[in-house]
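Recap from last week: sequence in, structure out.
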Amino acid sequence: MQSALRKKLLDAFTEHEGEYLSGQYIADLIGCSRTAVWKHIEDLRQEGFELEAIRRKGYRILKTPDQVTANEIRLGLKTKMIGQRIHYQESVDSTQKIAHRLGFENVPEGTVVIADEQTGGRGRLERAWHSPKSTGVWMSIILRPNIPIPKTPQLTLLAAVAVTQAIEDCTGLEAHIKWPNDILLNGKKVTGILTELQAEPDRVHFVIMGIGMNVNQTKMDFPAELQSIATSLSIEKGSFVNRAEVIRAVFHRLENLYQLYLEKGFLPIKLLWESYAVSIGKVVTARTFSGVIKGRAMGITDDGVLKIEDEDGNVHDIYSADIEI
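Predicted structure tokens:
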């Protein structure tokens, strides 16, 4: 995890974006010697940051690397909770597994596990999630909401809204949600969300919100079987997308919606979710564990359950299914 001094340094550059900061100012601010400041600056350069140093003016960050390290994400981060503690590893089996372990170790709410590559990434129903190196966002966020256990599925829908908004913030692309947690661009999947729970019968210990987002893949980066159904932000935008910028946007949107949810309940989230939903009002096919249901998607309940009306007028509550539009 990044050091407290490094966090203070990056916070200073964030607060004074584009400005020069003198070595003495930084030393006084973060509580270290000017020699230590120089060492921190050199460490940032080693990570790929491009810094300008001018005598009597100080240091200024000119360019950041396309990395998802704690330092890269921290620069420009303005959240109070989510992302303030980041566990970064270059390659992992699964960020979800690490987040579960940290959850039991009582790390603070908002702690994030992120990797440049996952070798065993997974989505809903234990499906494999293709997570190649240096192309996407593979992360898990630890939340500790004081809510009843039956309401925890609402957090998946909340996360879908946050990611959709973050994509629009960073790229200008119009994203949509396919129930419950697939984010689509031009009908192709760009993001999946996997929410897992640790709880006792009477209380939630923690929720792990796993987010996998395709950012800078080309079409040929996807396995042949996915090329017709998956896409990336850069494919749809037609240009490179900075991953750390996307991550910061997700953290910002997620934190704001999470606070809104805790204060006002699910209704504001539900209205937002339905405004982004691609399937509401359309005929869909729901493949459930007990069979196939085809009908018009009417919307979601206050608990996040999808309601489908079949051709005979019967209304079905869908708790878990694969949806085809």
